Amino acid sequence: MTSTSNNNANKSSASKSSTAPGWRLWIALIALPLAMVTAIACTRPTANITSMTPLSGLMTLKSMATKAVPYDLALTSQKPTLIEFYADWCTTCQGMSSTVETLHERYGDRINFVMLDIDEPQWASQVETFGATGVPQFTLLDSHQQPIENWVGKVPKLVFSTVFDQLLS
Fold first, then answer.
1. End-to-end CA distance of the chain
2. 137 and 116 together in one domain
3. CA distance 25 to 17
4. Which of 15, 26, 141, 144 is most buried, taking the most CB atoms under 10 A from its CB?
5. Mean pLDDT to the nearest integer, 30-47
6. Based on the structure, what is the number of domains in the chain?
């Protein structure tokens, strides 16, 4: 009886050892991707869904251009005007689009926001008049439509807000 029980014990241990590597492989195949997804999710900076898409800056830029006050109308207005010289291909322009959109939401009732695409021939004289040599260029005009500030490149929202608040007070 001992030899039979030894045979059964040997069969049982042989059976366990032959299935154990299979289970370990399955656990590894499941655990590894799960750990990778968890690591990515935990280390990814929080952001809204639009900031995660590569074209969101361009879409915001295009959206802002359609909402912008027409240049001729802005010049006849009694409000100060911010002219943005931009280009669709400009990644800094695309990156600044959410900042400009936020400023437009906050100051749009008191400041005209004008957007001029430097690649459009119709704006060539304005590009020359305001000396737009790089994009984005932001030119702030007072209520008499005289230039008072000029910025080129990436500008922090706080810089705009500070100047706007001073101008409007």
1. 102
2. yes
3. 13
4. 141
5. 70
6. 2
Structural domain of 81: 53-168
Contact 163, 149 (CB under 8 A): yes
Same domain, 150 and 112: yes
d(CA 28, CA 30): 5
Name the pTM for this structure: 0.69
| Contact present, 157 and 105 (Cβ < 8 Å) | no
Catalytically annotated residues: 90, 93
Provide the CATH number for the domain around residue 163: 3.40.30.10
Q: What pLDDT digit, counting tens, does each position of 59-99 carry?
A: 999 999 999 999 999 999 999 999 999 999 999 999 999 99
CB 130 within 8 A of CB 147: yes
